[in-house]
Design brief:
With 377 residues, the protein is of the alpha+beta class. It has twelve helices and twelve strands. The N terminus and C terminus are likely disordered.
Length: 377
Amino acid sequence: MMDFLADTWFVPFLVVLTVLVFVHELGHYLAARYCKVRVEVFSVGFGRELFGRTDRYGTRWKFSLFPIGGYVKMFGEMQVVQGQESPESRMSEADAAVAFNTKSLAQRAFIVFAGPLANFLFAVVILTGIFMTIGQPTTPADVGDVVANSAAERAGFMPGDVIVEIEGSRIDRFEEVIRAVRLYPGLPLKFQVMRDGRRVALTATPDIVDEEGRFGTQRYGRLGIKRTGADRQLIQHGPVSALLQATHETYVLTGSIFSAIGQIINGTRDTKELGGPIRIAQMSGDVWKTGLINVLMFATVLSINLGLINLFPVPMLDGGHLLFYAMEAVRGKPIGERAQEYGMRFGLAMVLALMVFATWNDLVQLRLVDLFVNLVT
């Protein structure tokens, strides 16, 4: 069944995306309900409603025609304070008590932040479940062999070294070494290794590797060490230990994604590595074929990405709203209606431009642009 669905990229993509969007919007919804804000609509997707139901609190839960994204509509959310007139003066007492714009600055910021927070918490929940049931992949971070003429040999690594720290971060597993090295091609990294019972400091600059794959050229770093010891083990954790390990793993993955985005911005990484919805859909189909655990891990990474990107201080995103609230906290009053309007237009333009650029990257990597050019020339 999974193989059949994976043959069509769109189906696995929709399944994964729908779950992540639902989780994100559920964060906004639960925070709004906690702050006693009336939620009018909870929609997965945009456009015309396909089907839905209204619950006893008056919220319309629905699936809409265009399934990319979603939203929660709260009562009073779009009203802007004009002049000195308070929002309460234009509402009945009952409406003012459940309106978004009558809530305190801290409550409004909490409701907005709750969406990205839900995505991070969802990643922790998935990883906690995996670490409790399947186990956490764990391989000792020791060095078996050092590849000749490699970054490791130039840095002075020796067989028998045990890597305990990279750039000040503790290392417990060989998987953490691979992740750190791959993320920083051509950039010097400071290592701490245990050698004959003493700690030794080494600095290595991972070799740059550009690998052509199905999803385009991927650049990563290679240290040049091999292991000859025990194979990877899956260690099952108890509830508390699994939660702690999952939280740490989510933190590390968030930092890795943030670093990769920063490298694209500063030019260390090629912008061609930036993928859009087509590439994500293609990856969803491929991962779907490999089994449930890999699908869950893929959803974990996407959930963290969704949470992190939404926190960027760009109007139209949650981070943009939080930026407006930060300015309101400094000024002591909301920013003007016109400033908000221009900010939203600018944010929309940025988001659309990024989507177009990422989609163009996808089309180029899939060779669809070349096909089109050949057809018309």
